Every structure is written in structure tokens, then in C-alpha cells.
Here is the input.
Amino acid sequence: MPKTAKSLPAIDPQYLTDFLVRLLNTPSPTGMAEPAIAMVEQELSEYKELSLSRTRKGALVAAWNVESDAPPAALTAHVDTLGAMVKAIKPNGRLQITRIGGLMLNAVETEGCQVFTSNGKQVRGSLLSNTASAHVFGAKAVETKRDEENMEIRLDAVTGSAAETEALGVRVGDYVAFDPRVEVTNGFIRSRHLDDKACVAVLVAAIRALKKAGLSPSRSVIFHFSNYEEVGHGAAAGIPPGVHELVTVDMAAVGPGQESDEFHATICLKDSGGPYHHGLSNKLREIAETYGIPYKTDIYPYYGSDGEAFWHAGGNVAVALIGPGIDASHNYERTHVDSLAATTKWVLGYLMDS
Ligand SMILES: [Zn+2]
Here is the structure.
């Protein structure tokens, strides 16, 4: 007998998309994710059921405590993104960078960027190959390897020397955030950094949907908004010891050979860190079946998650990983609102049924 799909609180895809676009437009490279953490904190501050706090490392923890005999659960998603830092101020006044996280320089070639100076100013610029001009370098403009040595930030300020760039307030160690270039068309959201801001928006939209329906989670839940995931240790701290289950909400890898797509949610059963927790993964699949949530199962070949970071830090919990399909990850990414809605429903089902 097929199960009749149980119903979930209504989600608001427009709200989800609007919040996501605002979050995408808030720069938050790993190490300087505070503006995005503050934005999520502000958004959640209207829900009196949530008690909000920051870890000493700067992550946001939102606890929704309810009366229940069941041990608390946690969900995590990360606001930090790929980015860069100024490595050197070159004699020509341009900037050499060092990458933050798994940034691929070919994916940000010619992208606009913001340099955040240590004196609180912002300087605009763009990342180019240092053999950028076709009329000056000919074939070399194409052949140059796109790496840290061969690329530079050209500042939109009058400078032709290291001294003039320093006079702008720029110093070695300043953060660089690349423009996300967000566009929403026919339900597709195209932007950098959907990994993992899409899932942060999913958690916020799920909390809102539950509240609007006048419901509460079936047991106490910790929402952990991580700020150091892209460098591998985001959720290593900040999950309270009483938590028994951790659902990591992060992007699903879309591409040839993958099951994931931009219209379903995916549960990842194994990635570079090995298998996820069998029992918790099965529970999530049952929830998806119960509520008729469109989902795929998948394996990610080059991938590690914040749930695994907590495991490596000694976290004694069951860990599972679900998320929306993101095409061209760590590149100019894209997903569809259907995938975000499916993931939000899955989170709601977990909050209500687990
Ligand atoms: Zn991620």
C-alpha cells in the first residue's frame, strides 16, 4: 500500500528566495563571515522561541527548546564562503592574492571584487590574469596558467606603485570578497556562494514556516550557523554535548555521474570522509517518503562536510547530510527554487517527526 503523503506547514518560496538573495549579497569569506552571521541573527531575532547565542569562534547558535523526553537534535549550515586575502602588494600597485578555501582562480577570472582594508574602507577591483591584454600578450593571454602567481587584482583607484596602494589603506592580510553576481530567472537562482547560503536560507525558511503554522519541533533543536566550514573546521565547535543527532544541510554535487539535480533534494550517503550514519540517513529517507518529498540518494567524490568536521573533533552523534542540488559548485553556481523547497520540506519533516 502506498503511504498517503502527510502534510507539512506551507513554505513561502518567495520569502526563501528574497532572503537568499540578500544573504548572497552580504560578503562573508571564511574568516570575515561576521556580516552574514549578523544578518541571520537579525532575521531570527523576531522569533521569541529561539534563544540566540554566539560561540567564541563566532558561529551563531539558535536553540529552540521544547518539553520532550527525546534528546536534542541539531542542524548545521554554513554562511562562510570561498574568497581570498591580499598576499602581497606588487610594485605595480596591483595585488597578489592567497586563496581562502577551495577557490578555483579560473572561476573568478575577470570577476569584480571588494577589498576590505584594515582601516575599515572598501576598495573596488577585479581579478585578472597578469597577461590579460590580448593586444599585448597575444597567445600568452590564453595560455597563462591561472594560479596565484599569474593573477592579480587591479584596483579601481589611481595607483601605479606599492606606496600608492598602501596609501589607500590596503595591507597584506586584507580580505577579498568576489561579487556573487546573483540573478533569479524562471525559478533558477544563479550566483556564487549558493554553497552554502542556499541551505542557511532553507533553515531560516523552515523555522519561519513552522512558526507561521503555530507549531514547534517535536524535541529541542539547535540550529548551528557555521562560519569556518570552507576551511574544514566550522562545526568542530558549537554543537552542545547533549545533542544526539546532527543533520548537516549543505549543497548536493550535480554533474555527470551524479544522481543529484537542481529540482530534488539529495541525501548524501558517502563522500570523501566515508559513509554517513546509516540509522539517521534511513530515518531521513523515511521522512521524505512519508511527506512525498522529491529526493535522490547520492555519493560525492570530492567533498567533506561540517558534520564530518564535528566527527573528527570527537562529536559523539549520528551525522547525516542533505541538501539542494547545486550545479557548477565552487564555480558560478546555480540551483532551482524547487530544490530549495524540497530541502526545506525535508527539514520541516525532520523537525516535526524525529
Ligand atoms: Zn558547503
